[in-house]
Write a structure and sequence with these properties.
The chain is α/β, with parallel strands linked by helices and about 270 residues long. It contains 11 helices and 8 strands. Helices cover about 35% and strands about 15% of the residues.
Length: about 270
């Protein structure tokens, strides 16, 4: 069985973005643990993980099957859609890659959770406004297979609008809520729009990569106090989970220096708030 904090509600799954950091040896994993054993050890502590490696390439079937075999029933993998689709081709002529990705990642079976369409910040040379991007996005969303759950992240804060979220809602795609330096705070957004656009909610604690990498290149301890920000997020996420919405929350090392430590802090603050 998957271990889960007693303070976290059943409809909230909290974990990290990736499980493969060797910097976690000692503070999170046993010091002598082999990389091939990381996911087994991870799944004994957290109920879900966001796969980062799928952004870089489509995992071969035997790798996906191995992830499933090494984790217990009830454990959930979220996965990033390959960057070849979201960043390089930007939804154009990508059906072959997308089909192959879905075929392979489906081997996770009941371990498979949401699939994240993570788009970069688009500069004005590529998209002078949101409208040209939406012309590509609308048919792509309309063609998404219904047997999968999708979340979508954008990093152009000026593109956030009621109309854009309604587009996601029309296709039951979750709007990815991101704790990131250049995106609006969750409480600011919550005052303006309904944050839940799909059958589940999806939160990502990303942080400021440039700022934190100026402080450290090791990801084995918390080096920033995120208590005030986390408390704000928890208040808003509780409004979502209290409605019975399945919710996922994933922490990056760049959020505060040590993703597993951020998960523990989040769990502790959830109980206090």
């Amino acid at each position: 069985m998957v271990k889960k904090s007693m303070s976290i509600p059943a409809n909230l799954l909290v974990g990290t973005s990736s499980w493969s950091s060797s910097d976690w040896l000692g503070p999170f994993y046993p010091p002598d643990l082999k990389p091939g054993q990381f996911i087994e050890a991870y799944a004994r502590k957290f109920p879900a993980v966001e796969i980062d490696s799928t952004y870089y390439s489509i995992p071969p079937p035997h790798v996906v099957a191995g992830w499933r075999e090494k984790t217990p029933p009830g454990f959930i993998f979220a996965a990033k859609v390959p960057g070849a689709i979201t960043h390089e081709k930007v939804l154009k002529d990508c059906q072959a890659e997308f089909t192959q990705f879905l075929r392979n990642i489906s081997l996770l079976g009941d371990r498979l959770g949401p699939l994240l369409l993570q788009f970069p910040y688009f500069n004005r040379n590529l998209f002078p406004s949101r409208e040209p991007f939406e012309k590509l996005l609308k048919p792509f969303l309309a063609a998404l297979p219904k047997e999968f759950g999708f979340a979508l992240e954008i990093r152009n804060k000026n593109w956030l609008s009621w109309d854009f979220l309604e587009l996601l809602r029309e296709h039951r795609v979750a709007f990815a809520l991101v704790a990131q330096a250049w995106m609006p705070r969750i409480d600011t957004l919550a005052k303006a729009v309904d944050l839940v656009t799909g059958d589940f909610a999806y939160a990502r604690f990303i942080g400021d990569r440039k700022a934190i990498e100026a402080k450290t290149k090791r990801w084995n301890k918390l080096i920033e106090d995120k208590t005030p920000e986390m408390s704000i997020w928890i208040k808003e996420l509780k409004k979502i989970t209290d409605k019975g919405v399945k919710t996922y929350a994933f922490f990056n090392n760049h959020y505060a220096g040590f993703a597993p430590g951020s998960v523990k802090q989040f769990e502790d603050l959830w109980e206090k708030n």
